[in-house]
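Polysaccharide deacetylase family protein
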Amino acid sequence: MKNIVWLIMVMIALLMSACGDVTTDVEEEAGQDKEQEQTTGKEEKEQPHEENEESAYQETQDEQNQADSAEPVYRIDDETSSVIPIDEKATEKVVLLTVDDVPDKYALEMARTLEKLDAKAIFFVNGHFLDTSERQDALQQIHEMGFEIGNHTNSHSYLPDLPEDEQKEEIVSLNDTVEDIIGERPQFFRAPNGANTDFTRQLAEDEDMVLMNWTYGYDYFEPYMDAEKLTEAMVTGKAPEVDVPHSLLKPGANLLMHDREWTAAALEDIFSGLRDKGYKIVDPDAIQTRE
Ligand SMILES: [Zn+2]
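Structure:
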């Protein structure tokens, strides 16, 4: 008899939950599990629960940033420049945003866009853009918004064409300049055109910088100097008009963008498109450095 009463109660509970009018214990437990998964970064997909997608995303991103800032959970792969998790807490489905040739005309605007979206990035600067107090001030503001400042050489020269003393000058003098402006030396280095020498690789290491190129970027190819076409290419990872018919978008992708008008115009849509595909943006603070 007790069993029959119990069975009826369970059936009533099931009927009520199926109507969606009540929150059962089962649902609450499921919610807790999900939250734990998101905190530990094992859950890759967004699963908004009684909230709109935007705020659910925001919450997850905040949790991730908080978890990440404590200690590095990613490294940059030497060969591919991809972002590789080194901690089981780290979300695998991430991309790194980088902006090169900074601060020319649009870097500050791009930083403000990313700040509004709560997306972090590395801004790779050139010394020849830091020749006026206005641009030095722009760099200072980008730094104060919480973005990582990387070294992209003093004059954007092709390093393999230079004698070693000039290669050194290109890199070390910019670290000095950046330190004068923001009070910190860059922890990341990217050579112009991705062209390093054995000497610059060693020098980056001696200067305590992590060296990286990128995995894809299209804003410097003529067919993609257009916000809409660039957005499509960055979000799909494909750029058929420059012979990239297969997607290069994958977990750990290192995305190259520049201080350019069409890239600044596309930035928010690129972010939204990546987010809609379930990607999170890596906080460079969560990447292992040499110091
Ligand atoms: Zn460049």
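The CA atoms of residues 96 and 254 lie 5 Å apart.
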